[in-house]
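Hey, quick one: can you model this chain's 3D structure?
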Amino acid sequence: MTLMKVNPRNRSVFSTFDSLLNELFDDKLRPFAAPVKAAIPFNLIETDNGFRLELAVPGLSKEDIQINIDKDILKVSAKKEYKEAEGEKVLRRGFGAYEFDKTFHLPKTVDTDQINASFENGVLSIGLAKKETAIAKPARNIEIA
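Sure thing. Here's the predicted structure for all 145 residues.
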């Protein structure tokens, strides 16, 4: 917690706060109608046989999400609209309606024919298999003939 020293003769801190409150409840304030462009956090995990891409997409269902592959470019996108209830007026929207497009350039080692996806508890997991030639083979001894 940060403590701020305030001089009672200097009203700028309070006047700024007052103006923010007035703006928040001002009748001229329109609801934020357009979806917010969201920054989607993700994890990239490598295994022996491939990669797993995990994207945090809370509030979405799997029907809201589209996944496309074109050559070595993987695109994940979604758009969700917020429906207002009858008799309600949204004064400010911080969540509920948003869209995103996330593009990933896949390495040449990924087999683009072996991509799968699953969705659970707001996390989208995309499995990216490595090509057979990219999978490391275990060390072995070579006999001399």
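One thing worth noting: Residues 26-34 have pLDDT under 50 and may be disordered.
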